[in-house]
Design brief:
single chain, mainly beta, seven-stranded mixed β-sheet, globular, Carbohydrate-binding domain-containing protein
């Protein structure tokens, strides 16, 4: 069955400038970010009148990208293991920090980052950041230096709902240069063992994890 024509659209999502991030570095319980509502990414599922369980907000400044994921409606705890990041609860984020034109294969500026909601640390109960290579890439991209990033998880008052906040500094994202390239290729997947997968648009019936021509755009605006 063919997907809805709306899911085949390639959209441009505004990403607002947020000067004050990261913050709260001296307090591990403080929030890293305060991203405005204008940074909410409108998933294509909303165009299909499907109610998403996750909200993604993004923001940028010269230092890097801020990411906030809020997941609601959970009745079960988180699952994850840093040894198998692809199956962990959390967020998969694909970014092209430089234009790829009409290429159907990733360039050295295409990156796949994973924000793990749990499965890291000595007790395997902490959030974490990692990156994976993109299959069939035209060039081997340098893996993002995720060890430079910051990530924190916060529990929400209802059930097992949670919020992830991460800051991806510019040195961790090869090719990131907002002045030269304010339009980034962009795709995401929220993974949850209980609630299922929530995609930005097309799902695994299409090669969204390796074909940047299927990604949307992220427009860095002031």
């Amino acid at each position: 069955m063919l997907p809805s024509p709306r899911l085949m659209l390639r959209l441009s999502h505004p990403c607002p400038y947020v000067a004050d991030m990261p913050r709260g570095l001296d307090d591990p319980t403080a929030e890293l970010l305060e991203l405005p509502a204008s940074g909410i990414v409108q998933a294509h599922a909303a165009l299909e009148e499907k109610r998403p369980y996750a909200e993604l907000r993004l923001g940028w400044n010269e230092k890097g990208l801020g990411v906030q994921l809020t997941v609601t409606g959970k009745r079960q705890g988180l699952q994850g293991d840093q040894e198998r990041p692809g199956s962990c609860d959390g967020l998969h984020l694909w970014l092209a920090t430089r234009p790829v034109g009409s290429s159907r294969r990733a360039t050295r500026y295409c990156h796949h980052l994973i924000l793990l909601a749990t499965g890291c640390g000595p007790q395997r109960d902490q959030p974490g950041l990692t990156a994976q290579r993109i299959p069939r890439a035209l060039q081997d991209a340098p893996l993002p230096r995720t060890e430079l990033g910051l990530i924190r998880r916060y529990s929400l008052p209802t059930g097992h709902d949670y919020r992830l906040q991460a800051f991806l500094p510019a040195p961790a994202l090869p090719g990131y240069d907002p002045e030269e390239s304010p339009h980034l290729g962009f795709f995401f997947l929220v993974r949850d063992h209980e609630l299922g997968d929530q995609f930005l648009a097309l799902d695994w019936n299409f090669p969204v994890g390796e074909d940047p021509a299927l990604w949307d755009q992220l427009h860095l605006i002031r």
